[in-house]
Amino acid sequence: MPLLNTPYAELDLIRQPEQANDPLQAFDAADEYLLAYLAEQQLPASARVLVLNDSFGALAISLRAHVQVLSSGDSYLARLGLEKNLGRNDLAFDAVPFVPASEAFQGPFDRVLVRVPKTLALLEEQLIRLQGQLAPGAQVIAGAMIKHLPRAAGDLLEKYIGPVQASLGQKKARLLIATAEDKPKAVSPYPTRYLLDQPPLELLNHANVFCREGLDIGTRAFLPHLPRDLGSARVADLGCGNGVLAIASALQNPQAQYTLVDESYMAVQSAAENWRAALGERPVTVQADDGLAGQPAQSLEVVLCNPPFHQQQVVGDFLAWRMFQQAREALVVGGALYIVGNRHLGYHSKLARLFRGVEQVAATPKFVVLKARK
């Protein structure tokens, strides 16, 4: 893999989760452009720089020895990438402090570097949180590959930060440079809420939750076919989002024990709040993690999963395949993984390579619900 070479550092970086012969780099031209722009400004070592949505540490690790840097984002995998890449470059794993998107960061910041996220609601929430956290004369510099840079990103910067200047394109990347000015204090539109008819629930959704405005159609197809009569089974909701699958299952299975896992801190925050609203003080484990990587082998009887088919802008079934492998490892012999997926993704044949038996529980014109037994 090529090294990241910038005015600040030469770094050897890997993506998370790791995969053999990964064709993708852990950085791109937008990272290089952001660092080159900042280097031209010759900030003093005392300058405080906030990095938002750094994919795998390219920005924060580069800046670590030159300014006071803080990293924040919503991805546990990005945090894991930051820590692993610090170690890969002979630095302490905690050499750059990280604040999950579910927690508040503390300014004032002289510069903010932003990788524009796929979900613009996350960007909006982050910009709202910057109000009152910027030093006089601060700039917020957002970078993205041009094909992933929506016009609305500039509109949000102008609305919440100040006047925006767009850079020229460079290696198919562009920067949006916003100069901070006094703005009326904004009220965040997040979290949002929606009502579910069956089971009757009000679900809260923080800014970066998938399908924040309403139940996604895959989950809608899955809900009527969740396993019943689980007794005291240990159940995991893998990629839990706002927690709806686990909560609906827990309402039907009052003795079952639940673990909810997602790599999004805002999803985990939403799921924990929704669980408490629906189930009060009933014990539960809710955590941000790399799927079931931290789950002991043969410690679960049931795994529920509505697998993702993308990681940020990268589309593919690598994450889903990895989740299936993790579920198999975590399940006891005889345990079962229940999933919902688009028909065209061919999950039945993939699961058949890992599990003893795979059966179709239900189907709609677009989705299938599958049960894979270990």
Give me the secondary-structure topology.
Layout: E1 4-5, E2 10-11, H1 29-41, E3 48-52, H2 58-63, E4 68-73, H3 76-88, E5 98-100, E6 109-115, H4 120-130, E7 134-145, H5 151-160, E8 164-166, E9 173-179, E10 192-196, E11 201-205, H6 217-222, E12 234-238, H7 244-252, E13 257-262, H8 265-279, E14 285-288, E15 300-305, E16 310-311, E17 314-315, H9 318-330, E18 331-342, H10 347-352, E19 357-363, E20 367-373
Helix pairs in contact: 4-5, 7-8
Average pLDDT metric: 93
Largest sheet strand order:
5-4-3-6-7-9-8
The number of helices is 10
Q: Which H/E pattern describes the elements? A: EEHEHEHEEHEHEEEEHEHEHEEEEHEHEE
Strand content: 25-35%
For the report, how would you describe the main beta sheet?
A: 7 strands, mixed
CATH superfamily of the largest domain: Vaccinia Virus protein VP39
Shape: globular
CATH top level assignment of the largest domain: Alpha Beta
**What is the CATH-assigned architecture of the largest domain?**
3-Layer(aba) Sandwich
> How many beta strands in the DSSP annotation?
20
Span between termini: 37 Å
* Helix/strand class: alpha/beta
Q: Looking at CATH, which topology of the largest domain would you report?
A: Rossmann fold
Number of domains: 2
Describe the protein.
The protein has about 375 residues and is of the alpha/beta class. The protein has two domains: about 5-180, 3-Layer(aba) Sandwich (Rossmann fold); about 190-374, Vaccinia Virus protein VP39 (Rossmann fold), CATH 3.40.50.150. The chain contains ten helices and 20 strands. The strands form five sheets. It has a seven-stranded mixed beta sheet with strand order 5-4-3-6-7-9-8, with helices on both faces. A seven-stranded mixed beta sheet has the order 14-13-12-15-18-20-19. Strands 1-2 form a two-stranded antiparallel sheet. Helix 3 links the parallel strand 4 and strand 5 (about 100). Helix 4 packs parallel to helix 5 and helix 7 (about 245-250) packs parallel to helix 8. It is globular, with a radius of gyration of 22 Å. Mean pLDDT is about 95; it is low at about 310-315. GO terms for molecular function: methyltransferase activity. Its EC number is 2.1.1.174. This is Ribosomal RNA large subunit methyltransferase G.
